[in-house]
Design a protein that fits this description.
single chain, alpha+beta, five-stranded antiparallel β-sheet, 16 helices, 18 strands, elongated
Length: about 525
């Protein structure tokens, strides 16, 4: 057999094979119409494996995967096969393209229509999910498409609505950083800059050097570091040098005066003013103290009413309440405080510190009134522990439950025939890693008020015992927990009309259930912890 005949035979065989595959792919399309999906897929896959009629075979797979009646349908797979089909289609001759258009309606326009159908369906699903993750998946899987750009707009809009709803510095800042090309970025950036200044003011306004150092550590990327922040830091160092937590040093009077004049917008300036008048207060020279306040009042913000209130208090003749010792057997040169009377006022519990008869650092003592005289106080067995802090807080109206403080938490003990029971942590009101104290029980027994230095307080977190605002109270707030059918409720902060960014302590709710007495160093006053009264309307 001649070589020419062999070539002719091979060509003929190839034509037959190609014709067979073409017929099989055509058969696959017929099977798709008959919903015989598995058989159709098998033919189409084999055609692709043999590298035959790739454009047509892959287009058929795209049709298969885009059919929701097919159990394994997937628009992503349909899109992938369609893209591969189109790449093969572009390599075809014009004659072949015309043939595909005539037999299968496959054309450039057809590819575009098919692709947009897939993308529109997938985008609708992402929109319906309201999921940023789904939008991101769509954008990642279908890049450089009109629908991907629309998905970006919708995603950004949705994310920005969430950002506005949360309305925190952190979420706005995250939005600006995460979506640099978003239409909403300009507006978000303005808000971020505004919130930057608010956050800085929140830290710097108290005038504390520790607050400024904390801000610098927490926000090294603050965009407005410069002359003004250097001035704030310098003033804070000046305040620190005054040692406002110590007794007023009259030799440094001029330093107090200079500081108040230049730093009157900072909280510590008012504290410095309180120190400046402290010698006059100690000498009960009320008018002289008021005159000093009047000198420095113009330096403070006109909206700050504390100077005027202080002047009115100093000019009031009913100052300086008279005090007397309850008993020389109870009071010593050392510490006695936190008095708690039983409802009949015949028994007094109190906290003693550094007494000769102390067992721990702070202990609970009891004294009884006999013939109108208080007996020598004794430590209560079972209430105190060596080397620890315990103090009485309150007794229930029926006298059968006592609240006590012990090492940062509030406990309760119940009266039994054998005496007081073992202490138990009071439910709901204690929080891990924070300080709770100064609890009292309402006259009806249905509410408990207490204080805490927890992070949810008004203002920045300042732990009890760490020097802040010229004392060691930290930032403590008053909370209330009420008795419900299911037990004691989650504590609620009494709010900014009572609590400040500084220290509130010793809440006492009058039996009328409307009048609250408490101490605070955040409402102005003479300095340190002053007593205040508020009435619920």
């Amino acid at each position: 057999m001649t070589s020419r005949k062999i070539i002719i035979i091979i060509i003929f065989q190839l034509l037959v094979v190609h014709l067979n595959f073409a017929q099989k792919v055509e058969k696959a399309y017929e099977l798709l119409e008959k919903e015989k999906y598995s058989d159709a897929k098998s033919i189409l896959v084999k055609s692709i494996e043999k590298n035959k009629d790739l454009a047509l075979a892959r287009y058929g797979l795209a049709l298969l995967y885009a059919n929701e009646n097919y159990s394994k349908y997937s628009y992503r797979k349909a899109y992938r096969e369609l893209k591969k089909s189109y790449r093969s289609y572009l390599k075809l001759s014009n004659k072949k393209k015309q043939e595909y258009q005539s037999l299968y309606q496959i054309s450039n326009k057809g590819y575009t229509t098919f692709q947009n159908k897939i993308l529109d369906i997938e985008l609708d699903r992402a929109v319906a999910s309201q999921s940023v993750a789904k939008f991101n998946e769509f954008i990642e899987y279908y890049p450089r498409t009109v629908q991907a750009e629309e998905a970006k707009l919708l995603r950004n809009r949705q994310e920005y609505e969430k950002t506005k709803a949360e309305n925190t510095f952190e979420v706005y800042k995250a939005f600006v950083e995460k979506y640099p090309n978003a239409e909403e970025r300009a507006e978000a950036t303005k808000i971020v800059l505004k919130k930057w200044t608010e956050i800085y003011a929140n830290y710097a306004s108290d005038g504390e050097i520790n607050s400024i150092l904390e801000f610098e550590k927490k926000y090294p990327d603050y965009p407005f570091y410069g002359t003004s922040t250097k001035i704030d830091k310098s003033l804070a160092l000046n305040a620190f040098a005054l040692r406002l937590g110590n007794v007023f040093d009259e030799d440094k009077t001029y330093l107090y005066e200079d500081y108040i004049k230049v730093a009157a917008k900072r909280e510590l300036a008012f504290v410095a003013l309180q120190h400046l008048i402290s010698p006059k207060l100690k000498a009960k020279e009320w008018k002289a103290a008021a005159d000093i306040v009047k000198i420095y009042q113009p330096f403070f913000d006109a909206k700050d009413t504390r100077c005027q209130v202080l002047i009115e208090m100093l000019e009031n003749n009913s100052l300086a309440p008279k005090t007397e010792s309850i008993s020389d057997l109870i009071n010593t040169p050392n510490g006695e405080y936190a008095p708690v009377f039983t409802p009949n006022e015949e028994v007094l519990y109190f906290c003693g510190r550094d007494r000769k008869d102390n067992m721990g650092l702070e202990d609970i003592f009891v004294s009884r009134k006999e013939n109108n005289v208080w007996t020598k106080p004794l430590m209560i067995e079972g209430m105190n522990t060596a080397g620890a802090h315990e103090a009485p807080l309150a007794i229930s109206p029926d006298g059968n439950m006592m609240l006590i403080y012990s090492n940062n938490d509030i406990y309760y003990m119940e009266r039994t025939k054998m005496g007081w029971s073992k202490r138990k942590k009071f439910p709901t009101i204690n929080s891990r890693n924070f300080w709770e104290a100064d609890a009292m029980i309402a006259a009806d027994g249905q509410a408990i008020l207490f204080i805490s230095d927890r992070e949810s307080n008004v203002g920045n977190f300042h732990k009890f015992g760490i020097k802040y605002h010229a004392n060691n109270v930290g930032n403590t707030d008053i909370y209330v927990s009420t008795r419900t059918s299911e037990g004691w409720s989650t504590p609620v902060n009494l709010g900014t009309s009572i609590n400040t960014a500084f220290g509130e302590r010793s809440p006492f709710l009058h039996p009328d259930m409307k009048t609250l007495y408490f101490s605070s160093d955040g409402h102005g006053g003479f300095g340190k912890m002053d007593v205040y009264k508020t009435t619920r309307l």
